[in-house]
Amino acid sequence: MKCMEVAVLFVLVQTMIPHSAAFTVSVSTTSHPTSLPPYLTHPQEASGPPHSAPTLFANVSGSLDDQGICQCSVYLPDTTFPVQKVEKLEIIAQTLSQKFDSELSKVTQYIKAMEVYEQKIQNLTIRVELMEKTSGSYTELDFQLLKVEIKEMEKLIIQLKSTLVGSNVIVEQLYVEIKNLTMIVNDLELMDKNNVLAIRRQIVNLQNQLKACEENSSKTTEPPYFAPGSCSHGGILNITRPYIIQLNWRGFSFKYGAWGRDYSPLTPEKAMYWVAPLNTDARLLEYYRLYNSYDDLLLYNNPREYRVTYGEGSGTTVYNNFMYFNIYRTRDIAKLDLNTNTVVLRKALPDAVYGNRFSYAGVAWQDMDFTVDENGLWVIYSTEASTGNIVISKLNETSLDVLNTWETKQYKPAVSNAFIICGVLYATRTMNTRKEEIFYTYDTNTGQESQISIIMDKMLETVQSINYNPSDQKLYVYNDGYLVTYNLIFQPILQ
């Protein structure tokens, strides 16, 4: 029976293995088989027709040895069993399983890393959008921090790409996003459309300058004081902002004219103010007013209004209760007594041009400009011989005789106005609609001329006249119909 069971086992093996193999089996048994089944007998012992059915095994024989062990020989269709191939297959399967587990673990790590990168990109995107929308809320340090963070992310993405075999859409998208962020940040920094960085640097610089200026101003003392009527100073150092007193009493249409305070050397405390607007033709001086105090001037109280019919231009001045002006259509000077409103003296100014020949720039009919300083009465004009350059003459206020004359190299029509302090001529020119510059001086004491730069702020565009008063050391300016004053600051004489 044991031999039969072995044979049956072999049948099963043949059905499982397609290749042929040969087996020799020894089975020990204590019983004596009576006979073998037909399908385990030798071919010559098998019964039945020779081609009735295919045999499962070929060349099968079996016998008992002396010890009662059953010896069977089975021949399968194939002669070898692929044991080594099965072993190799098993090893390959184990290796692939290990690699699969390792790659699966890496994919899990990559997913976590990409989630972190995605969050960082979202944060960077929000910051970049905020910088694009808010022109003044970022600094140069913000750009540097963004660049560092983007650079780190770019390195990580490149490292992630190198570890993946083949293409990965998510990683490629991350890489493109980081590159786009880099370009945006670079464009923001380089273009800087609103010049925010430059403005911030300039603001810091200005703040430092302001701080230094405040420190210096806290250390400086008050400007030196010089008594009115004194010439112990070294000339104008600076000028204050304009003080607008009021519009002339005739109205805004009367833009041309002159005004000031009477200077009396014997009574410098005297405070009589005069206002002499021209008619709307900007040429004829017909009316003027006198005020006995500054308060009367401000309130238009108690004015004394007079009429003349022969004054020309806005070069008028008042000195020691007399008004001096150019007589209409002549080169004559008129001396008008303010107490009686009568011309007490009239005299021609030798060689002076008239008829708007060489007037100031922007101011017509001011061929003669009368001015007063600590030394008395002066007239500023031009001659044909001077070819339009400024000529200065010191006048005897009693007789109107010319005491002395100086010819300068400064062309009068290039000057917007002029005045004299302590024998020094100061000429102005227009910079723009809001600023005037004192740019030229001529010292009659030494005959020297020089260039300076002292800026005067002004309310309106055109300065029609400037009168200096030694009593209060102020400039009285007629500015497009408005009465304006400036305080002067003098510098000490350099030793």
From TrEMBL:
One GO CC term on file: extracellular space
Swiss-Prot/TrEMBL keywords: Coiled coil, Secreted, Signal
PROSITE patterns per the UniProt record, alphabetical: OLF
Pfam family, one: OLF
First and last residue of the signal peptide: 1-22
Coiled coil residues, start to end: 107-163
Domain of life: Eukaryota
Compartmental location: Secreted
Record-linked InterPro entries: Olfac-like_dom, Olfactomedin-like_domain
Primary residence: secreted
GO biological process: signal transduction
Keyword Secreted appears in the UniProt entry: yes
Domain Olfactomedin-like: 230-492
Protein name as annotated: Olfactomedin-4-like
Organism: Alligator sinensis
